[in-house]
Amino acid sequence: MKKFWITLAACFGLASTAEVMACTGLLVGKKASVDGSVMISYAADSYTLYGELYHWPAAVWPEGAMLDINEWDTGKHLGQIPQVRQTYSVVGNMNEHQVAITESTFGGRPELVDTTGIMDYGSLIYIALQRSKSAREAIQVMTDLVAKYGYYSSGESFSIADKNEAWIMEMIGKGTGNKGAVWVAIRIPDDCIAAHANQSRIQQIPFDDKGNCMYSPDVVSFAREKGYFSGKDKDFSFAKAYCPYDFSSLRICEARVWSFFNKYNKDMGKYLNFAKGDVNAEPMPLYIKPDRKLSVSDVRDMMRDHYEGTELDMTNDPGAGPFKAPYRFRPLTYKVDGETYTNERPISTQQTGFVIVPQMRSWLPDAIGGVLWFAVDDANTTVFTPIYCSSTDVPECYRQGNGSMMQFSWTSAFWIRNWVANMVYGRYNQMIGDVRKVQSELENGYLEMQPAIDKAASELYQKDQKEAVKFLTWYSTSTADESVARWKKLGEFLIVKYSDGVVRKEKDGKFLDNGYGQGAAPDSPGYSEEFYRAIVKSAGERLKVK
């Protein structure tokens, strides 16, 4: 979702400098996780998206009620559809039945956008969450809505999961005058992991596997009609027909998927050239079997990835600056002497609105089993706090209306995380250790508490389900708000420790004095030898001491 800029991305269906979308989603089957959870993840990356936690209470609607459809990205009113009789409670991107849905935009062929459609991708997500008790039901709801009311957005990949299974569904419109969309949904095997990152990923479709594959009846015939494909059905590739590769769709999009796969499967080196932008190289599979099972911590930490330890590691070239920062501010491409170059685009990026790891657990009641690990701003420098899917309230720090992209708030998690992150960006390798210490303290503490919270909630649930929900709502809101208070303290600590280019001496978080009540003399670490050599190479004669 949301926008960043890049030059000439044919996959996105745009012909020159193009506004495209930028989100990453990871999926983990229940037999690929350490505890039997189904997990997905999502980074909503945008310079204009304010990080907040959405909430729709469960409701019973009167006969004839209508639902306004407003485009999620812009707020533009698209139309109305009839409301259903009963809707379910939704917090963030998970509902009370442990159904979770996320997305990433691949754009695809521009002529397939239908400007007369009503259903945009964001509305599809949040309406389906309010109307579905399973992933399969969510797929049915989404595709029925598009067929009836038209699809307003460009090409999308959706992660759709519940407590038992995870699916990837890819969808693209048919162009103005052709209502509906072509789409395919494939179930990720329980012992596998998958991912998508702004490039269509579904290749061949197992048409005969009705239990693990769903698709629109015209998914192939429409491609033939438009001249995108002319072979046999068994050779049809959704990605090649509706979102063909180019350099940017691989290096900026598929490379993120490769980084995830490479972390958990030793055989992924053979796809490195593909990830680096070779459109003639063998494509990666939609899903792989990991070498080991993944935990919530693994998925959470993968959302902080900058290709560390690989050939694409962002801290190993001059772009990282003197403090080895794994960030490249926009634009993503630039020109030098007439040649175009690209910055790496990792999973973790500075412009994230919110980032989540929905965890669904089938062995617990839905009210307790679903946990939305929720964070705002840059995944690398934020804190994931647990929000149980039955929560009936939103923490003050995540609440809509508490600040905005145009208004700072000292009680807003989004702005407190941004405040700290923007200090860290300038002196990354010096400051990130202090961030990691507090980050680990909080996140590991939540994970260690989870069994006790689950147990207490389960005991309450047996006696009074409403009291159990109240308890989980209290826990979800209090931990989130407390995390912001702790992060504010971290910011105060960092600005004292690192002010004016020095590092003030401290031990266990307490600053040292000189023995007479004044601050101890700070250290002046300067820069790395590598950076000094770069200066000498560029301006050494002018700066030489004589």
TrEMBL record:
Q: Give the signal peptide as a residue range, or say none if absent.
A: 1-22
Q: Which Gene3D superfamilies match?
A: Penicillin V Acylase, Chain A
The beginning of the lineage is: Bacteria, Pseudomonadati, Bacteroidota, Bacteroidia, Bacteroidales
GO MF annotations, alphabetized: dipeptidase activity
UniProt keyword annotation of Signal present: yes
Q: What class of enzyme is it?
A: hydrolase
Q: Which family does it belong to?
A: Belongs to the peptidase C69 family.
**Species this chain originates from:** Parabacteroides absconsus
Name of the protein: Dipeptidase
Q: Which reaction does it catalyse?
A: an L-aminoacyl-L-amino acid + H2O = 2 an L-alpha-amino acid
EC number from the UniProt entry:
3.4.-.-
**Pfam families, sorted:** Peptidase_C69
Whether Protease counts among this entry's keywords is yes
Q: Which UniProt keywords apply?
A: Dipeptidase, Hydrolase, Protease, Signal
